[in-house]
């Protein structure tokens, strides 16, 4: 017996999402008087990176009903079933994350970047687990993915930190990034 299913394709969701993020970022930067061409390009590139992550991790969405959830697709135990190709792809997917946080939001602290990477990865895996349990999606929710994603964020952070040693890269990042706050004068004792 064939069970009913429905596929939510990626492009009809991802393309409008990307355009929406571009428009919102342009409006926000324009309102803050920061809409320089380089700043817009960096923000739009980060927006399309976010769209690509959503597409790679959640779409296409395969919905079905009338069947039991496939619990084997949820693996909370790390290193139990390692799929090397998936782990490598998860590392590669999150390599640009630290650079995007640095350039778009000015987040430079290593531990803060890693916490954001962990939060992103856990959010993705929890969403995938909920989709598996509720609409019987065909994704996998695994702790190994979280480990691989955070490893990718860390390697990306180290690589970007190394790149920032080059004066030309530092100038480009400074021009594309958020303005650095002016130091506040120290109050006189008194």
Average pLDDT taken over every residue: 92
Distance N to C terminus: 84 Å
- Continuous helix count: 7
Strand runs, count: 4
The total number of structural domains is 1
- Overall morphology: globular
Please trace the helix and strand order, writing H or E for each element.
EHHEEHHHEHH
- The whole-angstrom Rg is 20 Å
Low-pLDDT windows of residues: none
Structural class: mainly alpha
Beta-strand content: 5-15%
Helix content: 55-70%
Biggest β-sheet description:
2 strands, antiparallel
Q: What order do the strands of the largest sheet run in, or round the barrel if closed?
A: 1-2
Describe this structure in words.
The structure is a single chain. With 190 residues, the chain is mainly alpha-helical. The protein is 63% helix and 6% strand. The chain is built from seven helices and four strands; from the N terminus they run βααββαααβαα. It is globular. The relative contact order is 0.15. The model has no long low-confidence stretch (mean pLDDT 92).
